[in-house]
Structure of FtsX-like permease family protein:
Amino acid sequence: MNLPLFIARKYFLSKRKRNFINIISGISMLIVAVCTAALIIVLSVFNGLEDLLRSLYNTFDPQIKVEATMGKSFHYTPTLADSIQMVEGVDIVTEVIEDYAYVKYRDADMVVTIKGVSDNFLEQKRIDSAIVMGELRFHDGPVNYAIIGRGVKMALSITPGSDIYPLQVHYIKDVKSTSLDPSNLYSRKSILAGSVFAIEKNYDDNYVFVPLEFARELLDYEDRRTSLEIKVAEGTDIDVVKERLSSLLGDRFSVQNNEEQHQDLYKLLNLEKVFVFIAFSFILGVGSINIFFALSMLAIDKKKDISVLYAMGANDRLIRRIFILEGVIISLGGALIGMLAGAGICWLQQNYGIVSMGMETSVLENYPVKMKAIDFLYTSAALIGITFLISYRPAIIATRYQTAEHL
């Protein structure tokens, strides 16, 4: 039997004459439990938010995006198109022309981001599940249709599918012109709003998808494109295809997977998670100070027992281990309760949504949470380190009561 652990457990479970020590130990355990549960919940919320962002961006953004490293656009020649399509693993290559434009519908107007895409964009099936009104299409015979965000629809009071009032799109083409005719400063085309998508507020309030040919004529891009959006073949590793495209296109093009398209955001989110973990660890450390006082008072209360142990042959190492293990029992007992409580609250949130986001959103109604084993591991490691630091000084104090005068 482990003697230090046996004695530490007896001290923790026994009824002491001075029950104030029991109260301090109970308070210490409760504080550790609350701080641990709060840390698990907050880290799980960060995990849920990260997964939510990934799901949103995977819906709106392509698996691989190709852009020019210099300039806003690049020439997309048949030779370049054939070479990209021949890369092993490439399934669909969607041509994109994207720029700001001024749109008007009846008496309302606003500035939006026009995203012209080739017809095979619909074959990627990225926004099929996000359509909330109308029919997902770009053409119906000679008639062109736009796919608009829900925020754009609400701002302009657009009725999707109606062919009475088209959406008028204006694009400034020559700000240096000295012509007295204002119509020479911009180009204008009209298109019908065919359907509405709802993904996330930033996208819903700004984006309008239009056929590539419509955008090419409006913006006068001819054979230029702002980007290419690539879908890889089923069962193909995205990063492998990305490396093949990078080797083919060279330094003139930037080839990014979905993660790299929002690299700064993911880094910021992870950095915030690290700082939250550090902050809560400090709070946990401050809350664990009660363990220091409980162990210090326990050492004074048990000075006779300590002297007896020394008389029976105990050494300083044995006494220190007893009090360090006493601190471990208090803190890990609280940590276990806190982890179970935190996991229980996260489970309830995942399954029943006990806390809502408190606002209307097209994404989800309740706060997202996701528990990860690594968070429990890091929390336990931080708690063990804090417990050792907190318990070491009272353990040193306990070794002072080795003389016979304390018997």
